[in-house]
Specification:
Elements (H helix, E strand, L loop, with lengths): L1 H17 L11 H8 L5 H16 L9 H41 L2 E13 L2 E12 L5 E11 L5 E9 L8 E9 L5 H8 L6 E11 L4 E2 L1
Antiparallel strand pairs: 1-2, 2-5, 3-4, 3-6, 6-7
Length: 221
Amino acid sequence: MKKTLLFISLIGLLWSCSSPLERKFSEETSEKDIKEIKSELDSTELMLLAGSMIRLQMTGEKLEEMTYREILDNGKEWKAEQEKIEAEQKALAEKAKKEEEARIKKLTESVLVSCYSKSFAEYDYQEYITYKFVIQNKSDKGIRAVKGSISFTNLFDDEIKSLSFVYDQPIAAGKEVTWNAQTDYNQFMDDDVALKNKDLKDLKVVWKPEKVIFEDGTTLE
């Protein structure tokens, strides 16, 4: 039994020593070594080995002090660490997205803004895009001021133009107010031209609330 175990150990040792992966990296023999290594690795591992060699060289590592297997293992460890970081980043982004969606939902449940008319006007040699907004206080408290943005998108949700929105007049609880606003029109700005030429029925109006100040001094943001 001991002879059998010894024989198996010797075979394993001879196999590992004969593997090109166990050779030290050498600039002179690398091309020949890689050709032999190809038979032992799949395409993914081969790409990882090549990428690891480039990465280690760029960071000043001495490849001549490492075997091809050590270089490959280093690549696997680096890849695992990168995948871990990417997973953490993705989880963090998803968490932030959910928190933002919850914040927007809470704000929208308090105040809603929509554009029910868009037109074009010219006076005093200046051109304007004009808007009529309706602002609805959906809360049970009077509103002192509202801040957010209005985005106009096409029917495919591609943004055409976004406007900063600030309304600082009182709105009673459960009531609606209308507000006429305007922005300067610049014929050399693509977003202005696109917005001017689109009928409101061919646009989507996206309200993004940022902050609500209530008459009792409390805020929501």
